[in-house]
Amino acid sequence: MARVFSFLTATRGKGRLHWTDWVSYSYLIIGIFLMFGPVIWLVLSSFKTANELDRFPPRFLPYAQETVEVDGFEDPLLAFTVIDGDLTGEVVGQTRRAAGRAEIIVPSNPDERIRVTVDQLEPIEGISFATENYTDLFERFNFLRFFWNSTFITVTATLLMLLVNSMAAFALSKYEFKGRTSVLLIVIGTLMIPQTVVLVPLFLIVTELGMFNSLWGVIIPGAATPTGVFLLRQYMITIPDEILDAARMDKASEWKIFWRIIIPLSAPAIAVLAILAIMWRWNDFLWPLIVLTRTENFTLQLALNSFQGELQTDWTSLLAMTVLTLLPIAAVFMFLQKYIATGIASTGGK
Amino acid sequence: MLNIISAAMRVIEIPMLALQRRLGINRLAWAFLLPNLILFGLFAFLPVILNVFYAMTGGDNVLLADRPQVGARNFATLLDCQNYLDVNSCREDKFWRAVWNTIWFVILQVGFMVGFALLTAIVLNRDIRARGFFRSVFFFPVLLSPVVVALIWKWILQREGVLNAFLDWTGVGGINWLVDANWAFGWSVFISVWAHMGFYTLILLAGLQAIPRDVYEAAMMDRASAWRTFRRITMPLLAPTMLVVLILALIKGVQTFDEVYAFTGGGPGTATTFIIQYIYEEGFAGAPRLFGLAAAASLLVAGVLVVLTLIQLRLSRNNVDG
What we know:
The complex is a heterodimer.
Chain A: H1 2-9, H2 19-46, H3 50-54, E1 63-65, E2 67-68, E3 77-82, E4 91-98, E5 101-105, E6 113-117, E7 121-123, E8 125-127, H4 132-140, H5 143-174, H6 180-191, H7 199-208, H8 215-219, H9 226-237, H10 241-249, H11 254-265, H12 267-283, H13 286-291, H14 300-310, H15 315-347
Antiparallel strand pairs in A: 1-8, 2-3, 3-4, 3-7, 4-5, 5-6
Chain B: H1 2-23, H2 29-55, H3 73-79, H4 93-124, H5 131-139, H6 146-157, H7 162-170, H8 181-209, H9 213-221, H10 226-254, H11 258-264, H12 275-285, H13 291-320
Helix pairs in contact in B: 2-13, 3-13, 4-8, 4-10, 4-12, 5-8, 6-11, 8-10, 8-11, 10-13, 12-13
């Protein structure tokens, strides 16, 4: 504890804490609480049973009532401690409960059923993770289907985007040709037209191409992004032309130069773009909402959104599904956060 | 997976090589550009042009040929107000409610977000321990999907949620947050700031770190107070970054839809319906599908965004030099 404290309070170089250091650290600690707190609360809640979720005020950790096995009963009985009357202190199982009265059994004497009032009993509870919230998802909903749709869209769209954008970036960085400036201007021009303001005509085009209610209708329209072209072009410009010339002397085709030399050398920029693309596609919402209207085509985001309407009270499934939806992104973040930060800072977002 | 990709690349090489022989090396550039240009053309430029035609037709047919010409009637419908400050006097009052909601939302959201992002960036730029860790703490909500953000906060704010439990415990008493129009609006601003602040913090932090140390050292030699140093050095040197951040935040703010739609559905009533949701609902969610009205509203939004983007491009060119 002392070490934690000295870690938190030490400042680099200076010996004593200035009052501004106190303010800074308090701010950061409130920050941790506000930023992480809600997600931790979501994850803990997703492991609670339906009864526990209904409980008000809620408890921090997931509790569930324990059960006892009693001879003669197939299912385990809910466990209680008797707090009043002859049996005070005994652990008993409950067989029935109605109108303020309960029928209980002492496990050591399974034949005798005893009637008590409900206020003589106190439930025995322990921390328990209701993993059935998660397993139920696979049984009650077509969860794997949504997961597959999201994954398919994310993977295909990312690969397509990387290929198409790196080809364009290669052309714009390594060739001198008439019209290069105009192409660059066109690319900049598309920056000004976000998808959100051309929804209606985009919908027409996608419908006309037969991609309405098809995963391809989500994948293809977003495959060429000005951000991607720019990011890759800026990087490819720094690759020296001499390498290309040397390859041309060896009679390598232009495509081979692109594929065998430019792509491997641009790996850092491509990695950044890949991470951004995965993030955008996995989290995409408005356009899939318009293109995919049939439940079997839903992505996880759409499924989550439509279930929150249908399952207003069924938070058990909803919370578990939310956790599973954020899990892949959380994993990507944990392993690649350095790239994500630099990538986002260098592209200025979407 | 890698095998498939490299096989595919070898297949593409055959036509590309044939093209190279016919076109020569420099004109081959067009072959590399082609897929991108087709996609841009089909899904970015063509829609912009078609949008204008949609805006001038009526009916609920999606095919342009089947749509009756109505001239500027869609715009007239949208803009028909007795008094522009009173939404109830407008013919399409839902549009104006969305417009005013968006304006208020953008003012509050951008203000709070950029303010807190600046504060956080300044704190993170100090000599603190574990800066990388704290930076990720503020950044990670950026990665969460809008629906997840909405559900996380809905769960906290629901009537029997943890926030109300806390308020009960302190004696203030619970509030039905998302049923009250003002609270729903306020929380929409809050979750939006919560979700996106980290991104702007990152950019501002990079801007702060680009300020040369020796300027601060010179100020210290002159015994300038901390406040004076901030006013006279940090602020002016950070101003270009600040402007880019502001414009970017405005561009994104105007387009806010996902998280608020999943959070409140635009309600209660129309309290949190923003302009993109209006477009979505007119064009896609309801029947009849008023594509013309949606397209006309899109054009108005596009106009605002184009102006903002031009400013941004200008600023970032002065700033980063290309």
